[in-house]
Amino acid sequence: MRGYHPRMTLTDTSFEQHLDATRDARIESYKEFLRIPSISTLTAHRDDCRATATWLATALERAGAEHVALEETTGNPAVYADWLHAGPDAPTVIVYGHYDVQPVDPLDLWTSPPFEPVIVGERMLGRGSADDKGQIHLHVMALAALLATRGSLPINVRYLFEGNEEDDARHLRAWLEANRERMAADVAVISDTGFFEGNLPSITVGLRGNMYAQIDVEGPPVDLHSGTYGGAVQNPVNALAHIIAALKDPDGRIRIPGFYDDVADLTAAERAAFGALPFDEETWRTQTGVPALVGEAGFTCLERRGARPTFDVNGIWGGFQGEGSKTIIPAHAHAKVSSRLVPNQDPERIYEQFKAYVAEVAPPGVTVTVDLLGAGSPCAMPLDHPATQAAARALKATFGRDPLYVRDGGSIPVAADFGELLEVPVVMLGFTPPDDNAHAPNESMDLNNYELGIRCVARYWDELAGSAVADGTSH
Amino acid sequence: MRGYHPRMTLTDTSFEQHLDATRDARIESYKEFLRIPSISTLTAHRDDCRATATWLATALERAGAEHVALEETTGNPAVYADWLHAGPDAPTVIVYGHYDVQPVDPLDLWTSPPFEPVIVGERMLGRGSADDKGQIHLHVMALAALLATRGSLPINVRYLFEGNEEDDARHLRAWLEANRERMAADVAVISDTGFFEGNLPSITVGLRGNMYAQIDVEGPPVDLHSGTYGGAVQNPVNALAHIIAALKDPDGRIRIPGFYDDVADLTAAERAAFGALPFDEETWRTQTGVPALVGEAGFTCLERRGARPTFDVNGIWGGFQGEGSKTIIPAHAHAKVSSRLVPNQDPERIYEQFKAYVAEVAPPGVTVTVDLLGAGSPCAMPLDHPATQAAARALKATFGRDPLYVRDGGSIPVAADFGELLEVPVVMLGFTPPDDNAHAPNESMDLNNYELGIRCVARYWDELAGSAVADGTSH
């Protein structure tokens, strides 16, 4: 009724009928979930994050999950639940998502309030609709529909939904380290990615890591008159600009010594895979709205985004920001900066290199400090793993075409953590459209992707049950 | 009673008695003047500026000035008043000051609200107490006391107090161009400067000019996810940092081509004059509170501040400034920048050079625009002019020692305008202490300087009347 059009009919009629009958309630539940402003990076929203975790736990319980619990971490609580009655021979899957969301500023660019979700056309519009509450919600809805219509799942499943993905991956990592035994599984399914340009079904087989830091430059204790002092006192904003400019060449090459040491060169096969993706730079540029694309020499646009590291300023501030003019040497200046990292860069090592280089290029007359705000490892996944291939079959069955295999520029540090700590292969199966405005104003989810996503998850469990993953070793 | 201690007694007993008797009322009037938040650079305070002009006009009328009028300009109204009964042989002086003040942020660093003036120790604390309402006020009080006790002045005087000095000098300049005939005078006295380090009586004989501009860098129409887009889209903050860093070497040399073409080299005599000033760099550094002084190679600290041009960022902003982390490529970034200029640099020409250079160094993938927010010419004054020497005698008679002759780093564009448009010599006779925190939180005026300043102005009028300036040509 509200613009969702399944492109194919699944064979499981009762499952489909159930989903049809419960659609209005499902959309209402989805909106309820989005209304809680679970911004993890702002401490003022700490209670909202906990309220969101509680809401999610209740939804999992209603869907029929067991052992539902809020798991305390060093950050916001994670939500754990499971359904483990498929027997020891069936594979066990960990489903991961995050219920926390990005901040919403600049608020004035939203066409409707970010935490008052509305359906516009075929989209659910609201913060978290795509990244990542919408994808958690469709998993819970798939579970509910399967248990309501079949009474069971063909696999064992553990749900692990965290509340600090947009904030600091170290919270969940510490929890995973402490709970690795409990989390034994055969495969981890992360639903925090999306479809390729053109809204083409995709499986993400590579992700960048991230190193996020803040640079603080302190000059005089108070703002100084730029006439009386200018020329003899270092200006903290000039100093910060100098540091930032020193970190990256205008042509996109990062100048931190050692920064590229561990970067895995792209193989001919990997470059061929990038080249095979249906991608038109000029179309993408137009969608992005920038006058020209830029980037590191010697790499294509997709390679720059998927397989090369970056250095970006996420925010900067210092001195007078008002209307008109004020003639001061500001007392201090600040920047939030981050590097997207690629295999095999180590975020902690990159941070140390970054810190040493900032100290080296910092001009005299100011005090410069840096702090690490977040770190996550990059990762790459094998295409031919049976769990990946099972996902590909489920996508084809649901969306009507073979998926693309994509190395995405984003970071989901937990993907590397699952591989490293739980020693499970990771399948990144996500459903958001490429123009979802994640992290930006007017975030939205394609409701067709959402609805078919529910069906795809159900199909995936069937495909996994019949796949080589079902060796039962972990249960 | 509140900590003012005249260091000498003037011969005019009735004048002194009158000032003693009216001190409480004078301080109350001073506070009243400071309470009106006349921030010219913020349009929200436009009415406050007009209210301040009206308050000032009333005060001039009460003091006995004639032809008091609010003069409309393209900005805030200027206040004109005169007293022209000294006869055609007496010199005519224009007294200049500005009633507008700097913005007050960061508010949290003020020990008391900026527009609720209080006396702390021997200081009047509040925005404008020194720069420049306090100095206007002492001129009006000198006029009132002279007319009350003598019934006349020994010279003819025109008062011109403007409301856009902290904002944009072009407003008063345009008015001066249109009113040059009316403003005929023999000398202009600007009271918008102060005493040298150690609170030593000084006459400012040189001022820097100013070119104030804003740089706006526009990238994508909305903030973008730094993972999905990073590496292929130019980051507006990185671009802005690159531009700012390109404008100035870390050693203080400005890189704009042609920037130094018109800079007058310091003569040996000028360098000797700088060297003769009682100044200890380390003491000054300690007062300033910075870890080290910096500046252009080959020049002393006083030369860097008084006789060399600068490029400073007054404020910068873009992207995420909140707590924690947000992973975006900001849609835009902005900076307010200014150059202090020295003889014979032309601010308009410098702006054109700046604009061309920014366009040259701007990286691809963003749209960069610059706008001129303010411009004022530098100036230098002859030490041996009879009007300067009369001021020196008045300072010595009042403060008990010969004044220093100082080239100050600040900018008072009207000083150049008076010289150029009215063709009058300019004497910069100001009384603020060097640690007045002008443009910063906790601006204050030394009340001893203020009280003796009133006496010094009266003495100056007497000295001028007997000087070679009294040739009567202008009246």
Write the layout of secondary structure elements.
The structure is a homodimer of 475-residue chains.
Chain A: H1 13-21, H2 23-35, H3 46-63, E1 66-71, E2 78-83, E3 92-98, E4 118-120, E5 123-125, H4 133-149, E6 156-162, H5 170-178, E7 187-190, E8 202-207, E9 209-218, E10 224-225, H6 226-229, H7 236-247, H8 268-276, H9 281-288, H10 301-306, E11 312-319, E12 328-329, E13 332-341, H11 347-361, E14 367-376, E15 379-380, H12 386-399, E16 404-408, H13 413-422, E17 426-428, E18 444-446, H14 447-465
Parallel strand pairs in A: 3-6, 3-7, 7-17, 8-16
Antiparallel strand pairs in A: 1-2, 2-6, 4-5, 5-18, 8-15, 9-13, 9-14, 10-12, 11-13
Strand pairing plus helix content of chain A: what structural class? alpha+beta
Rg of chain A, nearest Å: 23 Å
Tell me the helix content of chain A: 25-40%
Strand content of chain A: 15-25%
Q: Main sheet of chain A: which strands, in order across?
A: 1-2-6-3-7-17
Distance between the termini of chain A: 42 Å
Overall pLDDT confidence of chain A: 93
Taken from the alpha-carbon principal axes, the silhouette of chain A is: globular
Quaternary structure: homodimer
